Batch of 2 targets.
Target 1
Amino acid sequence: MLVSILHRITGSGLSVVGLAVLTWWLWALADGPDAYQDFAGHAQSWYGLVVLVGLTWAFWQHLLSGIRHLVMDIGAGFELRINKLFAVLTIAGGLFLTALTWFLIMGVNQ
Amino acid sequence: MSAQDLSTPLGRVRALGSAHHGGGHWLRERLTSAALLLLGTWFLASLVLLPALDHKTVADWLKSPSGAVPMALFVIIAFIHAIDGLKVVVDDYVHDAGNNAFLNGLILFAGIGAAALALFSLARVAFGAGA
């Protein structure tokens, strides 16, 4: 239940905020180094990092719970115990992959 | 169901969902999700694997076909999936026909508009005008 609602919330967030940031990023990249620097300044500020880390988490959470929904679409995984285990795994996996992604990005930037 | 009802099970349930149609929409949502499984992971992995994220490094990456083509696919399919997904949420929670049509129309227009902007920007980078 929680994971299913999270799937909708993260999907809506990625659609609205994620695609807006993606479009802004590509626009700034095309506009030149000055516009890109402006974007990077916002991206590296505390609020920018909150948004980007949030989007990263939303991406991995949505991807994993999406896989769970695809499995359930083919009629598998409805046994209560397995279903619950899979749901818990999407949350743990989403947090782990978010931490891993940012650990690697920070490593690149330093 | 009476004994005289010769319609198929599919025929009896068609158009009864919250959108009143949508088998194709349902399938497209799943097919685009499978594509994004690859493209989205490719996108994040590429950002992580680039030696730096400054303007020149990122622009050079998106000038190469191996960067520009998957990026174009990612943008197109992500927007289709987003428009499809938001429609499901709107159809489930906004039942007034007028508000529903207005919101879905807004999402469609904004989504296609932003997608055009993103693809135009990517083309400028890929073809070198934005250096």
Target 2
Amino acid sequence: MWFLFPALLINLLIILIPALLTVAMAFVSWDGTSDPVFAGFDNFRAMFADPVFSSALLNNVKWTALFLTVPIIMGLVAASLLLMVRKGRTFFQIVYFLPAIIATVVIARVWQGMIYNPDGGLIGWLHIFGFHLDDPLAHPSTALLAVASVDLWHWWGFMAVIFFAAFRQVDRAQIEAARLDGAGYFQLMRYILLPAIRPTIVLMMIMTVIWSFLAFDFVYVLTQGGPAFSSEVLSTLSYRYAFYNFTMGPAAAVALVISLFGLVATIFYVRVQQQELES
Amino acid sequence: MKSRAVVVKSCVTASRRMALICAMLSVLVPATATSAFAGDPISLWYQRGATPDQQRILQKDLVDPFNAANPGSPLTLDVRAGGSGDKQIRMAVLAGRGPDLVMTPGPSYALPLIESGHLLPLDAYIQKYHLDQRILAPALKAGIYKGHIYVLPRTFETMVLYYNKTLFEKNGWQPPKTLADLNKLAAAMQAKGITPFSVGNGDWRDANEWHVTVVLNHFAGPDNVYKALKGELPWTAPVFQQAIGLLNDWYQKGWFGKDYFSLTSDQQALRLAKGEAGMAPNGTFSFDFMTKAFAQTGQELGVVALPSLRDGVPYPTYEIGIGSTLSINKSSSNPDAAAAFLNYLYSDAFYDKISKDWPGDWNLPLTSVDATKLEKNVSPLFANTVTSFSKGVRDGNYGYTTWTYWPPATEDYLIRGIEQVWLGKITVNQYLQTMQDTFAKELKDGKVPPLPPR
């Protein structure tokens, strides 16, 4: 048991104490400099009364729905194709994984300036040929999707590499037997590969839920939640409360809401794990 | 730093090899370290971000001359990213650490640091170096808190109207002085397919507040803005409704073009320089962008004061912007050296250098600013703009920029909420009501920066 202590100590110092302080901060009125004053549930009332909070929460739900489907499907398809390819497999893995290792600020600026921009980007270039597309970051109806698309491009390759590693653990005998029985690609996926890597898929989906509610960097760099709060998410809202408005209480209250979703996802994962162990 | 004598003496009892090393090291100790502020080196975290060229200018004009004159307490300059530098400085100072010279984006950012006792009052240093005679009074007074001065204004900026002079001359247009002139000019421009205002917030979302600042000061008027900032007039008053309504009108009529949310600063300047747009309400801090863009196209840049948008609002009026302040950290181990740096910063010697290399952003509010002197280093256009601004302020024709005089949450809502008005999500009345509610709370909590009397 003693070998668990170093990890526990790190958890205590870096995670538990700051988490408890955040919980406490959600119940005080504090600007970060003066003395905190107990405020009861005022911060939560102010948070729920802010119309931007409900639209930010909805944006996070939309973000989660998008990331639970598109990159996972793309990752599974790409991983299954990698399984079938012998030559060039390493090359494709590198190509798929590259966006995941580039700094998010760099990716965001490249998309903002070189792709979406109507003057200097790909969209601006298409104008020359008569294709008058608008900058999707500039419209409330498309801003969130435009930001999410950048993150999707950045993220799906990571999923592909994770799923490929999982596929490689599947017993080759099962795959060969299925092929000998005449199974096609879709039957192979449905009856052999996907069931075999189900724990990995479930884990990635749960992590996706947690990470979706933590989404911050692309939104902050590309739109800062605009235009007109249309791409605001909970983490950018919390950041704004804390570092623009200097109201730490509401910022902590929003952070607790984010954590709540993460907690629900974690409990679900632990239950699934327990059920699998028991079975 | 120890003197040479002390270093050699401490090595006398060491081994021969150590003695040799000590002797070699002692050569590196300056023969004299007689600066009046000899002590710890001092630091400045430059929080606005700077391109590599700008960093070279800072090193050449700001750091090297000061260090040459003060070798005992050299300045270390640390350039931080523009979007997060102020937050890093705030966290460090609140933790009792941070740089000796504290740079903030304005008085409202410095206020919490003053109230929590993290900044030194500067009165004694101001007296010692006669800074009150060298810095314009309205700008200096923005740093007063409970009778003491804690912050000095680093940038002295205002909103002006840039315009394409070549385009104007070609079409026989005159820069506008009234709302009627502006309406007529904008209609003429749109008839020719020219966008009236080259503006955007693609790389700086806070650019929204420049336009709110313009209508509040040039339509509602500085007197009304002053009353509202003192809590004597609500932001929902009819004059402010009309002011924001006018701004919304400009947006709806297409005066801002269709790419407002995409255009970056250099793209806005280039569209103006090419004649695709006719005018650009922007800050004096953008002078550098504008001159570079016009140098590319060969057309001529013009700069005038913004028009009076309502009868009774004087022309010209210049809203005072202090986009950056400097203070001394209470935890500084060498405040005297930090004050000596401020003395150098507010000198004609430094202003001569920086106004030549980096006009616009480093416009210090010096009383000695004079068109004739300035023209030796900068374009007549910049010299005239700056001296007109200084004269306007001295004459009392000044207003208030939102980034200097508004409290933080109100300013944040002002920036983001106006987009909701432009995009039809909320009405002007709803926007101003939320602004009023937020402002009233911050006024009650003491977060509105102190306003010197008009």
